[in-house]
Write a structure and sequence with these properties.
- Keywords: Cell membrane, Membrane, Transmembrane, Transmembrane helix.
- By secondary structure, the protein is mainly alpha-helical.
- It folds into 2 domains: 58 residues; 62 residues, no CATH class.
- Helix content is 53%, strand content 11%.
- It has 3 helices and 4 strands.
- Strands 1-2 form a two-stranded antiparallel sheet.
- The mean pLDDT is 84.
- The chain binds zinc ion.
- Zinc ion binds next to loops.
């Protein structure tokens, strides 16, 4: 199974895919040159994913401002982290901002606040018992 990539890279990938889908749909419109209304529908349908991709790019720009740049301990390159846990942009090493979760089994559950807090509470409980 392919490892999931860095979130921002993944979102950008989706936005790029949308542009291509939009262009492909517009291109299909060429086959309907004889029927202007059908061609128009394809052109309109084609602009929708392109508009969505612009919104996604804009949104990525906004969330990029909230990311934290860290040095990856694995490949020593700098990477942007979105949320509490994310993957390295370069080597796809799972990274976390929570000291408590370091060395623990990696899960995207930690992006959900109450799940992360539950896990941290469990870890603290374990440490007390030792
Ligand atoms: Zn890395």
């Amino acid at each position: 199974m392919r490892k999931p990539g860095n979130k921002i890279m993944r979102i950008r990938g989706w936005a790029l895919a949308m542009v291509f889908i939009g262009m492909a749909v517009m291109y299909l419109g060429i086959f309907f040159r004889e029927t202007p209304w059908a061609m128009l529908i394809f052109l309109i349908l084609g602009t929708i994913p392109i508009l969505i991709s612009f919104v996604i790019y804009f949104w990525v720009g906004m969330i990029s401002a909230r990311t934290v740049t860290v040095q990856c301990p694995n490949c020593e390159k700098y990477t942007k982290i979105l949320g509490r846990v994310d993957y390295c942009q370069h080597c796809k090493e799972p990274l976390t901002l929570d000291k408590e979760l370091e060395g623990e089994e990696f899960s995207l559950d930690y992006n959900v606040k109450h799940r992360r807090e539950k896990k941290i509470a469990e870890l603290k409980e374990d440490q007390k018992e030792k």
